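Ticket #254: bound-state structure for S-adenosyl-L-homocysteine.
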Amino acid sequence: MSGRLFVIGLGPGDARLVTPEAQAALDLCTDLFGYGPYVDRVPQRSGRTAHASDNREEVGRARAALALAAEGRVAGVVSGGDPGVFAMASAVFEAIEAGPPEWLALEVTVVPGISAMLAAAARIGAPLGHDFAVVSLSDNLKPWPLVLQRLGAAAGAGFALALYNPVSRARPWQLGTALDHLRNLLPAETPVVFATAITRPDERLEIMTLGDADPARADMRTLVLIGTHETRRIGRGEGLRDWLYAPRAARASA
Ligand code: SAH
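RESOLUTION: The complex was predicted; output attached.
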């Protein structure tokens, strides 16, 4: 079996943030699989077939890519950001584990990408410069009480938070409920950032506090950053966006 499978991270949107390694892997692929908008980000070229699919068909998409790789083709599965962060790499390994034994012999390469939290943090300063936790607010693949439990544990332990999947058309209330939960645990002046469509033409960044964060201002392209009582805000005056950063040293919490 000579087939190969690449699981490729395309970064947050800007083509300059597709790594050279990701570009080299894309160039090798005969077939590309992924959620439509991600596949559309890769310029078409002759000799490569695009197999775009719906957002919820992750394991089916992974199986289709693996089946083609097993036939000797070079299949690529693309994700936005990093493929290992709430994305296709896990679906590929789930499919391999449950699949036919010959898939175990395939050459599988996961090509990392710049995840949304890193791109968003870079825009605003260094809000993830010390310990932080990453939580998806989607309850499609885990029960909602577990989301709240993890948020509470992480906030209670003093971690800054990066929240993925804050809202979608099918999940309109989760972010508001999550923010209310955090308001019970953290000071109202805790900095909050809504970073939307980072590195894309319609990028939007809003710095707020936990007390006044309005969930209606987030959409499915938003990454939410929640600071800690130690997060510093450097005010820069009229017309200039403030910087947020986590100091290099953290103290024991009270
Ligand atoms: N694998 C991706 C995450 C996929 S989950 C990564 O590593 O970035 C989809 C969620 O990622 C979105 O709901 C949003 O919370 C976040 N996201 C993806 N791209 C983004 C961008 N350009 N700006 C802000 N958030 C983004």
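RESOLUTION NOTES: The two ends are 59 Å apart (CA to CA).
TICKET STATUS: resolved
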